[in-house]
Specification:
183 residues, mainly alpha, Arp2/3 complex 21 kDa subunit ARPC3, 8 helices, 2 strands
Length: 183
């Protein structure tokens, strides 16, 4: 991985940060995109990570999280980006790069982290917005447990989407981006 000049890294980080923030704001405006656009923003955070290193990816993630929390009228997409969808692709890179660990152990690590983050996100939002716990029961079924089980299946799909994005970026989009940036 060849490193970019400092000004190019900064510009790339700024462009990706603004694009991710706009996607998170659009997630409030466009119906039924509360998860899709923050998930896409999370994958875009990987671009500066591949081009300039993990520190720039973390900086883009942090800046996008702060800007999304400040600028989004509805905080749901911002929270989802902050707690899971923006954090997970960066965490996935670190877990997948662990040497000499079988794939199944890496998968279990990612699944445990997903479940801990999802449960924490749920409780933080419930406590922050003072939602009564009785509102989560429908016909005697506690919906957060059902949604967590469904979320694990969706997590598997998101994991595959991040894998596919990485492959597409490295083999197709990276050269196009570098031609546009003239590097």
């Amino acid at each position: 991985m060849d490193k970019l000049k400092r000004s190019t890294r900064l510009a790339l980080g700024g462009v990706i940060t603004s694009l991710c923030t706009v996607f998170n704001i659009f997630a409030v405006i466009v119906p039924a995109s509360g998860y899709v656009l923050p998930a896409l923003s999370g994958m875009l955070v990987l671009i500066p990570t591949f081009e300039s290193g993990y520190k720039l990816g973390l900086m883009v993630y942090f800046c996008t999280s702060v800007l999304s929390l400040l600028l989004c009228a509805d905080k749901f997409p911002a929270f989802e980006f902050l707690f899971l969808l923006g954090f997970y692709p960066l965490m996935k890179l670190k877990v997948d790069s662990l040497p000499k660990i079988p794939y199944i152990i890496k998968f279990l690590i990612k699944t445990v982290i997903f479940n801990v983050i999802t449960i924490s996100d749920f409780w933080i939002q419930v406590k922050l917005f003072n939602i009564p716990e009785e509102s989560f029961y429908v016909f005697g079924v506690y919906l957060p447990q059902v949604l967590l089980i469904m979320g694990n299946f969706i997590f598997l799909m998101y994991d595959r989407c991040v894998d596919n994005f990485v492959k597409i970026y490295k083999h197709v989009l990276r050269d196009k981006l570098r031609n546009i940036m003239k590097i």
